[in-house]
Specification:
By secondary structure, the chain is α/β, with parallel strands linked by helices. The chain contains 11 helices and 10 strands. It has a single domain, classed as 3-Layer(aba) Sandwich (UDP-N-acetylmuramoyl-L-alanine:D-glutamate ligase). The structure holds ligand NPW, adenosine-5'-diphosphate and magnesium ion. Belongs to the NnrD/CARKD family.
């Protein structure tokens, strides 16, 4: 099947005006898990993006070293030590959308956290698997739960997960491996592709001004926020991918580099534009 572009029409169908009779519970409980002692910034950026993307209630489970920094930047987030596996399981089970992996790391503690999350998720939950969580699944050959799975690998992470070297990552090979894995695959690169069943979408936007650590962590948080709010999971993911790079392209008109946190701050303005009736 031909590769389809992600279009603004998909965003207009997805990001709708909020009903007046609604509350934070209407817009989803997002739980994000990651950020070890070395990579605290990754989970802070993912959490920031989920909140700016409109998640109703956001809880982050991370290494205790990151709690003060996250609270200082995002008081909207609730924060818990990810070593408390009982609480991790409880919070994960209560979530609509889970994001696991930004800055999680790949040591034994990280593996226990990931295994606890994967054991607790259920079919109705969205689970976005990013960064270190992809690496752990690949290196430990972990079995995947029945849930609405979304993987967000860059090309090297896709190599580890699929076994396809970057030069083997052709459309036909990618589709075959994506179907074997199941779920939605966001293959991040210059023109990011989104694979679901037999369909492949390509993001028309994106700029090398985005090549800054944390840019993918930000996308993972946006995917968490959008999948919590918008029922059509494929359209939610396509919308997150499109807006993420559209903001970057707009900022890059006048800026040599675009920071991940700058993207997050712009998300509500772009969502508003897509939610307005077309004149
Ligand atoms: N501030 C923080 O806390 C941050 C924390 N972070 C966290 O760090 C963890 C590890 O994630 P990671 O992505 O940094 O490392 P890894 O998976 O080894 O990938 C890099 C290797 O892949 C290769 N490569 C090939 N193609 C590529 C492509 N298209 N895009 C990207 N890379 C590509 C690349 O090749 P190179 O050209 O550099 O030789 C290199 O060999 C993860 O949990 C993440 O969330 C980061 O987000 C940074 C900010
Ligand atoms: N040259 C580029 N053109 C378009 N998008 C890019 C470019 N370089 C990086 N990006 C985007 O930035 C993000 C990088 O993701 P990732 O490597 O996971 O970052 P990190 O783990 O540091 O947060 C992806 O969304 C990717 O599409
Ligand atoms: Mg990444």
């Amino acid at each position: 099947m031909a590769i389809q572009p992600i279009t603004e029409a998909i965003l207009r169908q997805t990001i709708r005006k909020r009903p007046a009779d609604s509350h934070k519970g209407t817009y989803g409980r997002v739980v994000l898990i990651g950020g070890n002692a070395r990579y605290g910034g990754a989970i802070i950026m993912a959490t920031t993006a989920a909140i700016y993307a409109g998640a109703g209630l956001t809880t982050t489970l991370t290494d205790p070293l990151n709690i003060t920094a996250l609270h200082a930047r995002m008081p909207e987030a609730m924060v818990v030590d990810f070593h408390d596996l009982k609480l991790l399981r409880e919070l994960t089970e209560a979530a609509n959308s889970i994001v696991i992996g930004p800055g999680l790391g790949t040591d034994d503690d990280s593996l226990s956290v990931l295994q606890t999350v994967l054991a607790g998720v259920s079919v109705d939950q969205s689970v976005t698997i990013d960064g270190s969580a992809i690496d752990l699944i690949a290196s430990h050959d972990l079995s995947l739960p029945q849930a609405k799975l979304i993987f967000t690998p860059h090309e090297m992470e896709w190599q580890r997960l699929s076994g396809l070297s970057i030069s083997q990552q052709t459309p036909a090979n990618n589709t075959r491996l994506a179907q074997q894995l199941g779920g939605i695959i966001v293959l991040k690169k210059h023109h990011t592709q989104v694979l679901f069943e037999e369909q492949t979408f390509e993001n028309p936007g994106g700029t090398p001004a985005m090549a800054t650590g944390g840019m993918g962590d930000t996308l993972a948080g946006m995917v968490g926020g959008f999948t919590a709010q918008f029922a059509n999971q494929l359209n939610a993911v396509l919308s997150a991918v499109f807006i993420h790079s559209q903001i970057a392209d707009d900022l890059a008109h006048n800026a040599y580099v675009v920071l991940p946190t700058q993207i997050s701050e712009e998300i509500p303005w772009y969502m508003k534009q897509y939610s307005l009736p077309q004149s």
